[in-house]
Amino acid sequence: ISPIAVHSRILRKELPLLTVVTILAAWLLHDGIVTSSDAFVMLAVFAALMGWTIKEGIQEKKDALGEEMEQELDLHAMPVSKAMFWLVAGLVFLVVSSRILVWGAVEIAHGFGVSDLVIGLTVVAVGTSLPELASSLIAIRRGEHDIAFGNVIGSNLFNTLAVVGLAGAIHPMSVGPEVFNRDILLMSALTLSLFVFGYGFRGPGRINRVEGMLLLLCYAGYNAYLVSTVFIN
């Protein structure tokens, strides 16, 4: 839709951290088991990153991301009571819709003989990411590139550390070898590509249309491969 320019100094610091976190997650999952200790390491790293991000956000008062957020808040100003209502309503709707999505996806998987892993990597992943996609597209059309890019980085950090960490803390998880050999290695490669494209070693970071199309084609090819494995098997 539009080239993404990354101006925020905070985002340019978090982008290398996302790469390191992805490598850390790959290392913790290489044995095919998410133990309780692995989970607590992820949660501790997530808590430390959130604390660091808040600290950096307070210190970087003139950062581009903060300015974009202030503009966004000014455009949608509302009373605190109304904001609290929509927050609670949104959380309730999110919980209910998420349970319906997972239930429907599992039923589809069992009905067609598709593994839960493939359904999670395709249907559930797309369904849960649609709100992020919509908000990022709106931000891009408004020229708020740092918000859109920050949404991607923050979501990846949260899913990698908090979601996997919390699930593993509740109950240890085991994953098949294909998760590491195929899915995690590809995720690591694409995260590294995002770092190379977006960091901007000689100036402001920028992801142009060619690089964006390349990432999109990689994702489409990955999903096509997953679908092909269903029919082959």
UniProtKB/TrEMBL annotation:
<dbReference type="InterPro" id="IPR044880">
    <property type="entry name" value="NCX_ion-bd_dom_sf"/>
</dbReference>
<dbReference type="InterPro" id="IPR004837">
    <property type="entry name" value="NaCa_Exmemb"/>
</dbReference>
<dbReference type="GO" id="GO:0005262">
    <property type="term" value="F:calcium channel activity"/>
</dbReference>
<feature type="transmembrane region" description="Helical">
    <location>
        <begin position="118"/>
        <end position="140"/>
    </location>
</feature>
<dbReference type="GO" id="GO:0005886">
    <property type="term" value="C:plasma membrane"/>
</dbReference>
<feature type="transmembrane region" description="Helical">
    <location>
        <begin position="213"/>
        <end position="232"/>
    </location>
</feature>
<dbReference type="Pfam" id="PF01699">
    <property type="entry name" value="Na_Ca_ex"/>
</dbReference>
<keyword id="KW-0472">Membrane</keyword>
<protein>
    <submittedName>
        <fullName>Calcium/sodium antiporter</fullName>
    </submittedName>
</protein>
<feature type="transmembrane region" description="Helical">
    <location>
        <begin position="83"/>
        <end position="106"/>
    </location>
</feature>
<feature type="transmembrane region" description="Helical">
    <location>
        <begin position="184"/>
        <end position="201"/>
    </location>
</feature>
<keyword id="KW-0812">Transmembrane</keyword>
<keyword id="KW-1133">Transmembrane helix</keyword>
<feature type="domain" description="Sodium/calcium exchanger membrane region">
    <location>
        <begin position="83"/>
        <end position="226"/>
    </location>
</feature>
<dbReference type="GO" id="GO:0006874">
    <property type="term" value="P:intracellular calcium ion homeostasis"/>
</dbReference>
<dbReference type="GO" id="GO:0008273">
    <property type="term" value="F:calcium, potassium:sodium antiporter activity"/>
</dbReference>
<feature type="transmembrane region" description="Helical">
    <location>
        <begin position="152"/>
        <end position="172"/>
    </location>
</feature>
<dbReference type="InterPro" id="IPR004481">
    <property type="entry name" value="K/Na/Ca-exchanger"/>
</dbReference>
<feature type="transmembrane region" description="Helical">
    <location>
        <begin position="39"/>
        <end position="54"/>
    </location>
</feature>
